[in-house]
Amino acid sequence: MAITDDIDAVPVPNSPAGPDLSEIVAGFTVGAPIGPIPPLGKGLINDTFAVTTDSGRFVLQRVNQRVFPRAERIMSNLSVLTAHTAGTDGLRVPALIPAADGRPYLRTPAGDLWRLMELIADAVTLERISTAAQAAQVGRALGRFHRLTQDLAPDRLEFTLPGFHQTPDYMFRHVALRGQATWAADDASVHACTAFIDTHAPLAWVLEDALAAGRIPLRVTHGDPKIDNILFHRVDGRALALIDLDTVQPGLIQHDLGDCLRSCCNRGGESGPSGDTGAVRFDLDICEQILGAYFAETRDFLTAADLALCYDSIRLMPFELGLRFLNDHLERDRYFRVAYPGQNLHKATIQFALVASIEAQEAEIRAIIARGVGGE
């Protein structure tokens, strides 16, 4: 979902069986809606609509309570985050519009939770990074988010997705799945994936062990800092805002950084270039631009332990996602949406190939980290 004014959706009337969107908008303090309320963006989780009222343009969302069963926690976190970042320069958090009763959301008699947010003007999202300047803006946006929240006590936030990014839990689930008779024991691709997991199993505990030992702290994290969750100015290309903030919660910023690089530095995407795992490559040029801009924002508060874990964080996140894809394949695609049978298995092989590419370039990546930390 993109909170922008780049609205291409064809207006559609409200379904007779669906909610009356005009009535829902009227429950917020923004005046009367003008014209149709079309769907907005391509998000797969929440229902999102573009709203024009006599006082401006907004984004209306129904939070998916199957994914976020305690949706009030999300809204509490967003309220805390918005208040904490108010008046700061360089990165915006879309403002929440209060409902008529003063709460930052509206509950319908059907039990749905709706929210209304400002629509950021002149903003667009990108599907992929195509220039060095864009890569630098990604690093700047994530670094600025971590900078703006580094003095926000994480215990002020609720856990919206308990267990998210706790890689050992995905490992335990994988071991349990291996013990079930229904798994595809005769599938060569599954065997290749499980062999890769076996050789990399200790990696799953790297960050959790560091946290348990007190070497790194819990901080405020975005949780999903992909390229399409960053808004860019449509003219000058500046990063304006991080969006899709439902996963903001206490966590490890190493997960954020590793996941950002995982998604941005694999030019072929999660399905790979033409389905060819041999062509999967971790792009060092994009990595250097992102890390240089990220460390420019964060080097004065990151600790030596934070920096020592940077390389392992970069290879951990594709390993974790590959593990999750494989687990879902073995569980018959219960979590991730698939377009064809075996897609989750194929995506797992792509992520493990990305880990292998990272490890093949370890010396270069460590040198990039050192240059970024040093401000070279």
| Net shape | globular
Order of secondary-structure elements? HEEHEEEEHHHHEEEEHHHHHH
Broad structural category: alpha+beta
Portion of residues in beta strands equals 5-15%
What is the count of helical runs? 12
Q: Give a count of the beta strands, DSSP E runs of length 2 or more.
A: 10
Helicity level:
40-55%
Estimated radius of gyration: 21 Å
Distance between the termini: 36 Å
Q: Please tell me the overall pLDDT.
A: 89
Largest sheet: 5 strands, antiparallel
Could you characterize the architecture of this molecule?
The chain has 376 residues and is of the alpha+beta class. The protein is built from twelve helices and ten strands. The protein has helices spanning 21-25, 71-85, 132-149, 167-178, 188-200, 206-212, 253-264, 284-298, 304-308, 310-330, 343-360, 362-374, and strands at 47-53, 56-62, 96-97, 106-107, 113-118, 123-124, 219-221, 230-233, 239-242, 249-251. The strands form three sheets. Strands 1, 2, 3, 4 and 5 form a five-stranded antiparallel sheet that branches. Strands 6-8-9 form a three-stranded antiparallel sheet, covered by helices on one side. Strand 8 and strand 9 (239-242) form a beta hairpin. Helix 3 packs parallel to helix 8 (284-298), helix 5 crosses helix 11 (343-360) and helix 8 (284-298) runs parallel beside helix 12. The longest helix is centred in the last third of the chain and has 21 residues, at 310-330. The protein is globular, with a radius of gyration of 21 Å. The protein starts with 20 loop residues before the first helix and ends with a helix. Residues 1-17 have low confidence and may be disordered.
